[in-house]
Amino acid sequence: MSVYQYEAKLINGEMIRLSEFEGKVLLIVNTASKCGFTVQYSELQQLYDRYSDKGFAVLGFPSNQFLGQEPGDEIEISSFCRLNYGVTFPLFAKIDVKGENAHPLFVYLAKNAPGMLGSKGIKWNFTKFLVDRNGNVIDRYSPQTKPMDIEEDIKKLLD
Protein backbone atom coordinates (compact mmCIF):
# COMPACT_ATOMS: atom_id res chain seq x y z
CA MET A 1 0.00 0.00 0.00
CA SER A 2 1.14 3.53 -0.78
CA VAL A 3 -0.29 6.95 -1.62
CA TYR A 4 -0.13 5.93 -5.28
CA GLN A 5 -3.27 3.79 -4.97
CA TYR A 6 -5.45 6.89 -4.52
CA GLU A 7 -6.93 9.39 -6.89
CA ALA A 8 -8.31 12.86 -6.32
CA LYS A 9 -9.88 15.69 -8.22
CA LEU A 10 -7.62 18.60 -9.11
CA ILE A 11 -8.94 22.09 -8.45
CA ASN A 12 -9.81 22.38 -12.15
CA GLY A 13 -12.11 19.34 -11.86
CA GLU A 14 -9.79 16.84 -13.55
CA MET A 15 -9.39 13.47 -11.81
CA ILE A 16 -5.79 12.42 -11.30
CA ARG A 17 -4.19 9.28 -9.95
CA LEU A 18 -1.51 9.97 -7.38
CA SER A 19 0.56 7.35 -9.21
CA GLU A 20 1.33 10.22 -11.61
CA PHE A 21 3.65 11.48 -8.85
CA GLU A 22 5.42 8.12 -8.51
CA GLY A 23 9.14 8.56 -7.90
CA LYS A 24 8.74 12.00 -6.35
CA VAL A 25 9.08 13.13 -2.76
CA LEU A 26 5.74 14.64 -1.75
CA LEU A 27 4.58 17.05 0.90
CA ILE A 28 0.81 16.61 1.18
CA VAL A 29 -0.94 19.41 3.05
CA ASN A 30 -4.55 20.18 3.97
CA THR A 31 -4.94 23.90 3.38
CA ALA A 32 -7.30 26.82 3.99
CA SER A 33 -7.38 30.40 2.73
CA LYS A 34 -8.69 32.11 5.86
CA CYS A 35 -6.54 30.53 8.55
CA GLY A 36 -3.78 31.92 10.72
CA PHE A 37 -1.45 29.44 8.98
CA THR A 38 -2.43 30.53 5.45
CA VAL A 39 0.85 32.43 5.15
CA GLN A 40 2.50 28.99 4.95
CA TYR A 41 1.48 28.94 1.28
CA SER A 42 4.48 31.20 0.70
CA GLU A 43 7.01 28.75 2.19
CA LEU A 44 5.30 25.78 0.52
CA GLN A 45 5.76 27.56 -2.81
CA GLN A 46 9.41 28.34 -1.97
CA LEU A 47 10.08 24.65 -1.31
CA TYR A 48 8.31 23.68 -4.51
CA ASP A 49 10.32 26.22 -6.52
CA ARG A 50 13.57 25.11 -4.93
CA TYR A 51 13.18 21.35 -5.31
CA SER A 52 10.59 20.55 -7.99
CA ASP A 53 13.33 20.00 -10.58
CA LYS A 54 14.92 17.45 -8.20
CA GLY A 55 11.77 15.33 -7.94
CA PHE A 56 9.73 17.10 -5.24
CA ALA A 57 6.10 18.22 -5.25
CA VAL A 58 3.74 19.90 -2.83
CA LEU A 59 0.12 18.74 -3.07
CA GLY A 60 -2.41 21.11 -1.53
CA PHE A 61 -5.84 19.84 -0.46
CA PRO A 62 -8.20 22.63 0.63
CA SER A 63 -10.64 21.72 3.39
CA ASN A 64 -13.42 23.72 5.04
CA GLN A 65 -13.66 21.48 8.12
CA PHE A 66 -11.95 23.74 10.62
CA LEU A 67 -14.09 26.74 11.60
CA GLY A 68 -15.16 27.26 8.00
CA GLN A 69 -11.76 28.68 7.04
CA GLU A 70 -12.01 27.59 3.40
CA PRO A 71 -15.46 28.88 2.40
CA GLY A 72 -14.76 29.60 -1.26
CA ASP A 73 -15.34 27.46 -4.30
CA GLU A 74 -12.52 26.01 -6.38
CA ILE A 75 -12.23 29.08 -8.63
CA GLU A 76 -11.98 31.41 -5.62
CA ILE A 77 -9.45 29.16 -3.87
CA SER A 78 -7.28 28.83 -6.98
CA SER A 79 -7.35 32.59 -7.66
CA PHE A 80 -6.60 33.44 -4.03
CA CYS A 81 -3.59 31.11 -3.89
CA ARG A 82 -2.19 32.23 -7.22
CA LEU A 83 -2.69 35.98 -6.69
CA ASN A 84 -1.64 36.19 -3.03
CA TYR A 85 1.08 33.55 -2.82
CA GLY A 86 2.07 32.76 -6.41
CA VAL A 87 1.08 29.11 -5.94
CA THR A 88 2.00 26.92 -8.89
CA PHE A 89 2.11 23.54 -7.12
CA PRO A 90 -0.87 21.22 -7.64
CA LEU A 91 -4.02 22.19 -5.77
CA PHE A 92 -6.93 19.81 -5.46
CA ALA A 93 -10.67 20.27 -5.13
CA LYS A 94 -11.97 20.92 -1.64
CA ILE A 95 -12.28 17.72 0.43
CA ASP A 96 -12.96 16.46 3.93
CA VAL A 97 -9.81 15.34 5.75
CA LYS A 98 -11.53 13.91 8.83
CA GLY A 99 -14.79 12.27 9.79
CA GLU A 100 -17.00 9.80 7.98
CA ASN A 101 -16.64 11.59 4.63
CA ALA A 102 -12.86 11.96 4.84
CA HIS A 103 -11.05 11.43 1.56
CA PRO A 104 -9.48 7.94 1.60
CA LEU A 105 -6.02 9.46 1.01
CA PHE A 106 -6.23 11.39 4.29
CA VAL A 107 -7.55 8.35 6.14
CA TYR A 108 -4.47 6.50 4.88
CA LEU A 109 -2.07 9.35 5.73
CA ALA A 110 -3.43 9.79 9.26
CA LYS A 111 -3.34 6.05 9.92
CA ASN A 112 0.25 5.70 8.71
CA ALA A 113 1.62 8.80 10.44
CA PRO A 114 -0.27 9.37 13.68
CA GLY A 115 -0.06 12.71 15.43
CA MET A 116 0.69 13.57 19.04
CA LEU A 117 0.01 10.75 21.49
CA GLY A 118 -0.87 8.44 18.61
CA SER A 119 -3.85 10.51 17.47
CA LYS A 120 -5.07 9.45 14.06
CA GLY A 121 -7.30 12.46 13.49
CA ILE A 122 -6.28 15.61 11.68
CA LYS A 123 -6.79 18.43 14.13
CA TRP A 124 -6.32 21.57 12.02
CA ASN A 125 -5.43 23.16 8.69
CA PHE A 126 -1.89 22.86 7.37
CA THR A 127 -1.15 19.43 8.80
CA LYS A 128 1.66 18.17 6.57
CA PHE A 129 2.63 14.64 5.52
CA LEU A 130 6.02 13.84 4.00
CA VAL A 131 6.04 10.95 1.54
CA ASP A 132 9.12 9.27 0.06
CA ARG A 133 9.75 8.39 -3.59
CA ASN A 134 8.12 4.99 -3.08
CA GLY A 135 4.86 6.46 -1.82
CA ASN A 136 5.51 5.63 1.84
CA VAL A 137 4.41 8.10 4.52
CA ILE A 138 7.59 9.10 6.36
CA ASP A 139 6.44 11.74 8.82
CA ARG A 140 3.64 14.03 9.92
CA TYR A 141 4.12 17.67 10.89
CA SER A 142 1.79 19.83 12.90
CA PRO A 143 0.21 23.00 11.56
CA GLN A 144 2.65 24.99 13.71
CA THR A 145 5.63 23.46 11.88
CA LYS A 146 6.71 25.94 9.24
CA PRO A 147 7.32 24.38 5.83
CA MET A 148 10.93 25.64 5.75
CA ASP A 149 11.55 23.70 8.98
CA ILE A 150 10.89 20.52 6.97
CA GLU A 151 13.45 21.39 4.30
CA GLU A 152 16.26 19.21 5.72
CA ASP A 153 13.93 16.19 5.87
CA ILE A 154 12.94 16.80 2.25
CA LYS A 155 16.57 17.10 1.16
CA LYS A 156 17.45 13.77 2.82
CA LEU A 157 14.72 12.02 0.83
CA LEU A 158 15.83 13.70 -2.40
CA ASP A 159 19.46 12.54 -2.05
TrEMBL record:
Record's keyword annotation contains DNA repair: no
Keywords per UniProt: Oxidoreductase, Peroxidase
Active site residues per record: C35
InterPro entries on file: Glutathione_peroxidase, GPX_AS, GPX_CS, Thioredoxin-like_sf
Matches recorded under PROSITE patterns: GLUTATHIONE_PEROXID_1, GLUTATHIONE_PEROXID_2, GLUTATHIONE_PEROXID_3
Top-level taxonomic group: Bacteria
GO biological process: cellular response to oxidative stress
Gene Ontology molecular functions: peroxidase activity
One family name in Pfam for this protein: GSHPx
Keyword Amino-acid biosynthesis carried by entry: no
Family to which the UniProt record says this protein belongs: Belongs to the glutathione peroxidase family.
Name this protein carries in UniProt: Glutathione peroxidase
Organism this protein belongs to: Peribacillus saganii
